[in-house]
Structures are given as C-alpha cells and as structure tokens.
Write a structure and sequence with these properties.
Layout: E1 3-6, E2 9-15, E3 22-26, H1 37-43, E4 48-52, H2 69-82, E5 88-93, H3 95-106, E6 111-117, H4 126-141, H5 146-156, H6 161-173, H7 180-187, E7 203-208, H8 216-225, E8 232-235, H9 242-245, H10 247-260
Parallel strand pairs: 3-4, 3-5, 5-6, 6-7, 7-8
Antiparallel strand pairs: 1-2, 2-4
C-alpha cells in the first residue's frame, strides 16, 4: 500500500495514476478513502484521483498526538509532494472539506481548483461542540455501540439501511478509539472565513439538502466569501455524503467543473 511520511505520521492514499489532471480528495469524519469509489469509477482515467486516509481513519498511521486541520492539510501536501505533482485540484467532504480549504490557503499557487461538500468556514458553536463531544464519547467508550453506529450511519450516510450497512459493519469491527483525536480536531477547528477571499481559484461548493451538521446558511457564507464567489449546488435527498449516496448527480457536477477549468 502506498504511504507518504511526514514526521512520525504515515499517510495512506490511493492513486489511480494516469496523465489526467490530478484531484486530491479527503473523506468525512468516521469514513475513509473508500467512500470515493463512485468518483474513482466515474472520473478515472480522464482524471487522476488521489484519495487520502486522514489521521485516525483507514490505513493511515499516526503518533497519537493532537492535530488540527492545518496539520491534515500539510499531510495531504506531503502526499502530493511524494507523487511529484506541482499543481492539483483539492477537495473533500465535511472533515475532508475543512482540510481542503486549508490546503488551498497554505499553497494557493499550487491549487487549480477547490471542491468542498458539506463544509463551513467557521468554528463550531459551544452548543454544537457539546453535542458532538457526547456522540464521540459514546462512540469511543461504549461496550455496546450499536445505537450510536446506527445514528452516525443516518447522519453521515443517510439514504437507506442497505446504503449504510457496509459502513455500519466496518465501524462495528473497527477500533473506534482511533477516532478520538480526529473528533477533537473537528470540534476545536478554527475560523478561516476571513481568509477565504485569498482563494481565487475556480471552486465548486455542494451540500446535501438533508445535511444536519452544516446548515445551508453556513455553506452559502463559505461560497460567498471566496475570492471568486460561487453558487451552492444543493443535492436533494442527500445527507452529509452526497458523493456516496447520490453519485450520478455529484459526478456530473464534478465532471462539468473539472472540464471547465483552465488548462
């Protein structure tokens, strides 16, 4: 399996390869790079899709020290550097979208485009933080996590039980303690809203209509604050991961966006 190293962290990624423009994708909290299978199937080989396992997820190995989204952005750039790529499109869903924003802020000349799904640019409110901390405590410490797993499946994946089941099975068999620091990263994230005007590359902003984590107003705020403001595309019937549950609509938007970018 391919890994890139940054200090004591070994970042796992998948890479379709090929000569097409490179697109780096980051997954949502609780998920892993496998959630982008529909995008890989639809967009490769026209585009080179690089999907990364964030710290605390998938096959990535970290050193069990706290980290921020700025650290995750630098991890992702370490993968890009490992592959010898100069310029890429950066994107992500939720947790991965927070990372993609900071990737663009850290190295704007290297970013050809930005894709964010279900993402805001602001810190979490105290009320929302308390709710997430309660869920994360149940996730990491419960000896019988089935109710929490069902709740997370409904929130993250949405759709039908059949669509959620592969992820429920994966979570049930996983070491759920691994998510602890990633959860802290999420609830303690900083605000970057005032910095978004510096991001002037083409952007695509999406949100699932049934997303209960990020409001329509927060996504509109992000899209309007970019250096080149863009409209928000809303995916009816989708929750936090429309790229997984509504791949046809999302992939069409991705392909149109990528095809329209300057070469």
């Amino acid at each position: 399996m391919p890994f890139a190293s940054r200090g004591s962290v070994k970042i796992h990624y998948t890479d379709t390869g090929g000569p097409g423009p490179a697109v780096v994708l980051g997954h949502g909290l609780f998920m892993d790079q496998a959630m982008f299978a529909p995008q890989i199937e639809a967009l490769a080989p026209d585009y080179r899709i690089i999907a990364i396992d964030s710290r605390g997820h998938g096959e990535t190995e970290d050193d069990d020290t706290p980290f921020s989204y700025w650290d995750l952005a630098r991890d992702a750039w370490a993968v890009v550097d490992e592959l010898g790529l100069d310029r890429v499109v950066v994107g992500g869903v939720g947790h991965g979208g927070f990372t993609a924003l900071r990737m663009a802020l850290l190295a704007q000349p290297r970013v050809d485009g930005l894709i964010v799904v279900g993402c805001s640019a602001t810190a979490m409110t105290a009320q929302r933080r308390a709710g997430y901390q309660e869920v994360l405590a149940q996730w990491t410490s419960s000896a019988t996590p089935s109710p929490t797993i069902r709740m997370v499946g409904s929130l993250m994946v949405g759709g039908t039980v059949e669509e959620q089941q592969p992820w429920r099975d994966k979570w049930g068999a996983a070491d759920r303690e691994r998510i602890r620091l990633a959860g802290e990263c999420l609830v303690n994230r900083d605000t970057v809203l005032e910095l978004l005007g510096e991001i002037r590359c083409p952007a695509l902003v999406l949100r699932g209509l049934a997303d209960q984590a990020i409001s329509a107003e927060q996504v509109e705020e992000l899209a309007s604050a970019l250096g080149n403001p863009v409209p928000v595309h809303t995916i009816a019937g989708a929750a936090m991961t429309p790229s997984l549950t509504h791949p046809g609509e999302v992939n069409a938007l991705l392909r149109g966006f990528l095809a329209g970018m300057p070469r």
